Amino acid sequence: MAGDVTCKAIVCSAYGGPEVLKISTKTIPPPSKGEIRVRICAAGINPSDTYVRLGPSGPYAGTKLLPDLPFTPGKDGAGIVESVGSGQPSRFSPGDRIYLYGSISGTYAEYALCKEEQVFALPSNVSMLQGACMGVPGFTAYRGLFQRCQVKPGEVVLIHGASGAVGLAAVQLAVASGCTVVGTAGTFAGCEAVRAAGAHAVVCHRDEGYVEAARAATPRGEGFDVCLEMMASSNLPSDLGLMKRGGRAGRDRGLKVGDGPRQPEGGDAAGA
Q1: pLDDT digit string (tens) for 1-59?
Q2: What was the pLDDT predicted at 147?
Q3: Rounded to whole angstroms, how far apart are CA atoms 197 and 203?
Q4: At residue 138, does pLDDT exceed 60?
Q5: Of 141, 159, 205, 222, which residue is least crowded by CB atoms under 10 Å?
Q6: Which residue ranges run through the membrane (predicted)?
Q7: CA nearest 169: which of 99, 228, 100?
Q8: pTM, 2 dp
Q9: Are 41 and 133 in contact (CB under 8 A)?
Q10: Residue 145: what pLDDT?
Q11: How many domains does the chain have?
């Protein structure tokens, strides 16, 4: 039976800026029933990790999203199954390559304890570094497109703000499902990344007249069946103006964007 593992980890004993991220040691207990212990090969970094680290002075102030101190950050990661809890059949065995979408103990460490439902098989043609970037961005994109906006093959989809992690995942998922996809980005490098992800057309949203350019990129200039917006509600009026009658618009859960600090909004990829 597996015992405790003592490993190096990043531990936050206080909330605050990057200076609270301290390398320390941490004991990871053996997995219980329904749990898996993973040797982490790569950890992903998400904006939400920053919001958690900031604590009461950040966007998550007053919510239930702040962990008790001390804590190890990190939701995403990839690695090798080290041990599996006994007491019920498991989809995994020691040695399996996996990626994570969440964990019990945090992924900024050499080992992480996870619930089995947070663990997914990593294909052999996907690297550990790529796997560490798949969890939060990929599931957010999937939820927005298919669970909230109910995207169907053959539809025309706008990914507004497509050069970020969630946006690039959304482009790839929508293209793979048989949609015509137009993506926007704010820089030349961003536009190239969106194009490389498979978008059929790319528009720079910093250019004057980009809304008209996005519409012109749709078949017969008829507009979009679905728009997935990465900047919360900041572009919603222009997004809605690009929709076909009966179209669906969704926004990443995201944060309100304005002159002051960014604050959490309710709901994630909520249909509008």
Answers
A1: 579 999 999 999 999 999 999 999 999 999 999 999 999 999 999 989 999 999 999 99
A2: 94
A3: 14
A4: yes
A5: 222
A6: none
A7: 228
A8: 0.85
A9: no
A10: 96
A11: 2
Element (H, E) at 26: strand 22-28
13: exposed, middle or buried (C-beta count within 10 Å: 0-12, 13-18, 19+)?
A: exposed
Please state which of the ranges 18-32, 91-105, 183-197, 225-239 shows the lowest mean pLDDT: 225-239
C-alpha 182/C-alpha 30 separation (Å) is: 47
Check if the beta carbon of residue 36 is closer than 8 Å to that of residue 114: yes
Pick the range with the lowest mean pLDDT from 10-24, 94-108, 238-252: 238-252
pLDDT score for 232 = 64
Task: Decide if pLDDT at 261 tops 70.
Answer: no
- Closest C-alpha among 202, 163, 165, 161 to residue 180: 202
Q: In the numeric block, which tokens belong to residue 265?
A: 């909004």
- Tokens representing residue 245 in the block: 């009658």
Of 77, 99, 133, at which residue does a domain stop?
133
Residue where a domain stops, chosen among 133, 168, 203: 133
> CA 177 from chain center: how many Å?
19
CA R_g for the chain = 20
CA 163 – CA 190 distance, rounded (Å): 5
Supply φ then ψ for residue 157, to 5 degrees: -125, 135
Whole-angstrom distance, CA of residue 135 vs CA of residue 71: 20
Token pair recorded at residue 225: 């069946």
CA dist 67 and 85 (Å) reads: 24
Q: Identity (one letter) of the amino acid at 175?
A: V
Domain that holds residue 184: 136-264
